[in-house]
Amino acid sequence: MGKGEETRQAILDEALALSSQVGICGLSVGALADKAGMSKSGLFAHFGSKEEMQIAVIRESQQRFVDTVVRPALKEPRGIARLRAFLANWMDWTRRARLPGGCPLNAAANEFDDQPGPVRDAVAAGLADGRRMLANSVRMAVEAGELRPDTDIDQFVFEFTGIVLVAMQNMRLFREKDASRRALDAFERLVRDYATERGNSKKE
Amino acid sequence: MGKGEETRQAILDEALALSSQVGICGLSVGALADKAGMSKSGLFAHFGSKEEMQIAVIRESQQRFVDTVVRPALKEPRGIARLRAFLANWMDWTRRARLPGGCPLNAAANEFDDQPGPVRDAVAAGLADGRRMLANSVRMAVEAGELRPDTDIDQFVFEFTGIVLVAMQNMRLFREKDASRRALDAFERLVRDYATERGNSKKE
DNA sequence: GGCTTTATAGCACGAACGTTCGTTTTTGGT
DNA sequence: ACCAAAAACGAACGTTCGTGCTATAAAGCC
Fold first, then answer.
1. How far is CA A29 from the centre of its chain?
2. Assigned domain for A181 exists
3. What CATH number should be reported for the domain holding residue A151?
4. Among A106, B9, B130, B178, which residue's CB has the most CB atoms within a 10 Å radius?
5. d(CA B175, CA B178)
6. Which residues in chain B have their CB less than 8 angstroms from residue A184's CB?
């Protein structure tokens, strides 16, 4: 890896941290250059445009999410246990990823959801990827016989995601400490509704 | 009402529409003045600072939400029916309020959740107000005997809010049309879990 | 209708924005 | 050690940002 890739990565690290606090559109070239300890033009050359930079940050954010949340959860056995691990990791992934604020991808999703263009597309692609992965894990839980065979997988993913979103909001905006506990409780209730006897008995 | 209040209201109407597309921090004095058909300084005089303007927009947004979502739902009888109406109204409130984009309050919540200050406080206050109102309606459903007496009201509000948030995301970012149907389905499942026999039989 | 109060416009300011360009420094292969 | 290539810099561009002033126009009261 050349020097170029190296500093580009350093820039993205800094960009991730900054955007987790001020969002993607609040992230400016000048401010980022300051944080990264280099000149505006030097930093700019790595991306070619602000839009490209934003997209790079989004991709990096997604990548980091996979490394921090998804990959570790895959060590759990398929089924409900893995889903639970997934949720637990999700709950404090920005802390684990050493980000000072919230999830940049989530912030970007709310900023660009009504502004068509490549940035919005990148955000949607990133989130869709996460959901696809989530849907796969749910399907495995069905195949493992822990969730009922007639489980509406997309509906399960829908409700799971809802739990994550509200937990994020409670944590970040309201600074409530019991947010992740509530999320876990909601998850257990969700699972109980969709579980087979076998799947249900697995828990405690 | 003097002329001042009148144009101030017109400005806020325009500001709400604009911020529903570009968010609160994407809303600039110049752009808003253009939309409102007046000069930057003339508009600026109504608020005194950009921050005050942002807060005014947030307050207005909350006000509009109450008029569009909460008030109509209060015509339904107390209990689960009212909660259901509340959700249904919520699902397309920005359309009913003739806003071109998503919920400005929700956008602001994600933009400012990690930036302490008066704007964040205003957003949190607005959202907290909505949750208080929601909690009240849940409590009424308990008192009406439709939800179990041991219902954890805050947990119910938590899960309810999650349904709303994910539905918003699915609608706005992914443009899925079945988002509100999924939300309603999730709501019925939520209610079924917390309902008494009487409350359960109420539905269909 | 005149007069006071209020509202709006016009203009200017310094700062920050994204972007371009030419120059200088650093790097990596030979 | 040298030299081409890559990377970073500094300065400047035109725009837009938020925010002050001062003057003009409109509105409301007697």
1. 24
2. yes
3. 1.10.357.10
4. A106
5. 9
6. none
In terms of residue numbers, what domain contains A137?
Answer: 54-201
Q: Is B120 on the interface with A (CB under 8 A)?
A: yes
Quote the minimal CA–CA distance from B133 to chain A in Å: 16
Per-residue pLDDT of chain B (204 residues; tens, 9 = 90+): 577 688 999 999 999 999 999 999 999 999 999 999 999 999 999 999 999 999 999 999 999 999 999 999 999 999 999 999 999 999 999 999 999 999 999 999 999 999 999 999 999 999 999 999 999 999 999 999 999 999 999 999 999 999 999 999 999 999 999 999 999 999 999 999 999 866 665 444
Query: Using CA atoms, how far apart are residues A87 and A73, in angstroms rounded to an integer?
Result: 9
Cβ proximity of A41 and A47 under 8 Å: no
> Is residue A10's beta carbon less than 7 angstroms from any atom in nucleic acid strand D?
no
Is residue A34 one of the residues assigned to a domain? no
In angstroms, the CA A166 to CA A21 distance is 18
Interface membership of A173 toward B (CB under 8 Å)? yes
A126 touches B: beta carbon within 8 Å: no
Q: Which of A90, A98, A113 is nearest to A168 (CA)?
A: A90
CA B42 – CA B40 distance, rounded (Å): 6
Total tally of structural domains belonging to chain A: 1
User: Out of B111, B114, B193, whose CB is closest to A111?
Assistant: B111
Bridge partners for A195 per DSSP:
A147
Please report whether residue B131 resides in a domain.
yes
Q: Which residue among A114, A123, A172 sits closest to B114, beta carbon to beta carbon?
A: A172
pTM of full prediction above 0.85: yes
Alpha-carbon gap, residue A39 to A28, rounded angstroms: 13
* A42 in a structural domain: no
- Sequence-distant (6+) residues with CB within 8 A of B80 are B141, B146, B147, B191, B195, B199, B202, B203
